[in-house]
Amino acid sequence: MSAYDHDAAYLALKEWQVAVDALLRGEVGYLARKGGIHEPGNQFLRDAARFWLFPTYEHQFEYVDEGTDTLREPWATRLTESRTQHREADDAERLGIGVHTPAEIPITGYVETVGVHEFWAGESIAALTDMGIWTRAFVEARLRWKPRDPLTVFRLRAFRSAKPLSVPADQVPRKCYSWLELPFALAEHKGDEVTYAGADDLESLCEELLRAPDEEAAQMQRRVQMVSS
Fold first, then answer.
1. What is the pLDDT of residues 49-97, one digit of tens each?
2. Which residues contact 57 (CB under 8 A, 6 or more apart)?
3. What is the pTM of this model?
4. Spelled out in words, what is the top-level CATH class assigned to the domain 10-228?
């Protein structure tokens, strides 16, 4: 697993709570990531086949507080409304754990990877936003961060856990990285598959975008830059 030393049987991906919720409702079928600042070996793990979804709160509410245009509707409104609830019961923040983070972080499902695609061009990201929850501006900003790395798009099949689980927030390391281990193994907690109606359309779109002239040109430009650097 590259520089990662996590056990794949316990692996979890940290992602905004609103995105986790959308996946487990069958509203979206992919996540687009570049990894955090402190990734081991400065490399984002891309080959995880099956992993828990670990909801995070701090950054998503910071963006809302700053008025940044990050989410499309209805997810933007959903997040704004949930912020009030977290402010009224913000035990974790008082403990110094994080902004608007619940004291017990719920683990409500996991995903299986059905496809991994790497995109370099803003045109590709723009085309994908209609099938996601984020605005074009926000996803393009993610693309520009760490410009030597592509934006990794995971096409996912989601499963909602039959048994609710949780992790105490004060036991979670507050480092800016993408993956962590949870104290329970995936194999011991089966879930019910969540139907995402757009799965076939999403797969077709990703394959089409990878063959697009803008994407092929962007990939070639990055390869030339890496060889010459």
1. 889 999 988 778 776 666 568 899 999 888 887 766 655 555 545 555 5
2. 16, 17, 86, 98, 99, 100, 101, 102
3. 0.86
4. mainly beta
Shortest CA distance to 6 belongs to which of 190, 191, 188, 185? Answer: 185
Whether residue 216 has pLDDT greater than 60 = yes
Report how far residue 47's alpha carbon sits from residue 4's, in angstroms, rounded to the nearest whole number. 11
| CA 221/CA 224 separation, integer angstroms | 5
The answer to whether residues 4 and 47 touch, using CB atoms and an 8 Å cutoff, is: no
Q: Are 71 and 27 spatial neighbours (Cβ–Cβ below 8 Å)?
A: no
3-state secondary structure of 190: coil
H helices of the chain, where? 17-24, 58-66, 75-88, 91-94, 122-128, 136-144, 199-210, 213-228
| Residue 98 near residue 58 (C-beta atoms within 8 A) | yes
Kindly report, residue by residue over 127-140, the tens digit of the pLDDT.
999 999 999 988 88
Per domain, the residue ranges of the chain are: 10-228
User: Is the distance from CB of 118 to CB of 47 less than 8 angstroms?
Assistant: no
Say how far apart CA 11 and CA 92 lie, in whole Å.
23
